[in-house]
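cron nightly-structures :: item 1 of 1
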Amino acid sequence: MEKNVIIKTNKLCKSFSNGGVLQHVLKNIDLEIYRGDFTVIMGASGAGKSTLLYALSGMDKPTLGSIIFNDNEITKMTSDELAMFRRSSSGFVFQSIYLIDSMSVLDNVLCAGLLTNKNKKEVVENSKNILKSVDIEESLWNKFPNQMSGGECQRVGIARALINKPAILFADEPTGALNSKTGKDVLDTLTKANDNGQSIVMVTHDIVSARRANRILYIKDGEIAGELDLGKYIPHDQERHQKLNDFLVSMGW
């Protein structure tokens, strides 16, 4: 069955000036991201992973090329139009979680929801349901971020990113600052969201995290060097683990 394209790029380029020297970080990338997929972007440090993620999400503008996101060419939007589009169409989970320390867990999620929905009663109900879905217990809702573990805070960050029902959830190294146990909890949360139909694009350097994806994109020197179809995630699947390892070795990982 033909997959439904949600993001399509054409000749995507991103360059930066460093001391008067032009550095080409992304080079003529033609790419399709499919609805319902859990796509992971991997590559060596400096290969352009996060730059690509920020461009796809509309958080950064490319130097050249186009991005069609949900039938909208976001590369032609003004800054204000892009900000409005991001609020309604994408969610972003950062490695540094960026919860508001002076707000409770519930208010952090509620604040994001009110950006697109002014019906506070409805947003409160949605926020509570989202927090339950990412396994944040009601006893934690009135706590502040500094009273919680890193893994709990990151799951709240995922809830905040999901509150406006985004077409795609973007995640940049979401387990990078977490230990293996709390990292697994966050990956379980993302996997559960994907199982429920949420499209996800995640950057990671971690093989354990990458195994959660059904599609791996490997970027090298600003270009897509290869991709791997892993199929649906199955826990403790050694064949899947070996297939990913072999692919990464072939890419020069």
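cron nightly-structures :: done
The chain has one domain: 5-250.
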